[in-house]
Amino acid sequence: MTFSIALNKINDMLSSKSINNLADCYASEIKPRHVNTNHNILINKDGKYTWRSLCLIHPLLYIDLVREITKETNWSLIQSKFDDFKSNPKITCMSLPQVEIFEPYGIGSRIAFWLEHVEKESIRSSLDFQFILHTDIANCYPSIYTHSIAWALHGKEFAKKHRSCKKLLGNKIDKKIRQLNFDQTNGIPQGSVLMDFIAEIVLGCLDRILSNKLDDSGIGKYKIIRYRDDYRIFSNDREELAKNF
Prior knowledge:
By secondary structure, the chain is of the alpha+beta class. The chain is built from 10 helices and 6 strands; from the N terminus they run αββααβαβαααααββα. The protein is globular. It comes from Piscirickettsia litoralis.
């Protein structure tokens, strides 16, 4: 199933009109009749008692957020931040959304990317390190604090000082995500490439913080491969691995 036709039409509509003129559901105070603005699907993760909520965001709200992110100045800022996040070659993010190389075979392309850049890279790293630790961030997407998006883009102190600035990109993204999620600050919707990208802004910032913490601790011999909130951490010191990770 593809939503490209509907999304293209909505994009054309938003080129000439503000979203506030198209949908009253995009208001800071969410009213009861708008409780079903998005479509949520529950899936079972392990065949037991663990469930995950996937969200199909209303296409009007989806495109509005995409248009804000991809404005030239905003996109340049985001790109510069990702360059900063990956400044430590020992921490590698393998989960940034990719352009599909083989259009008809999107799933196959993603599997090939996973095998080449996660599995094979792990094998290559195992030649240099004796131990590996697999870990993840529990309940990652539902735990993301929306204000932390601005912290990641602009620095926590600056963002907190300018939290009322409506022109700040991080504040704009924060507000739009809260408005499509009943004005909640806890959690972002899961199940779309757009929200994967938003999550990478926060997770990329965490990579930078982790890098600084490891430098401060004098730990230099390690390798980390991250795919979204899943981490593969390589080290030659088992005690150091257990203590610091």
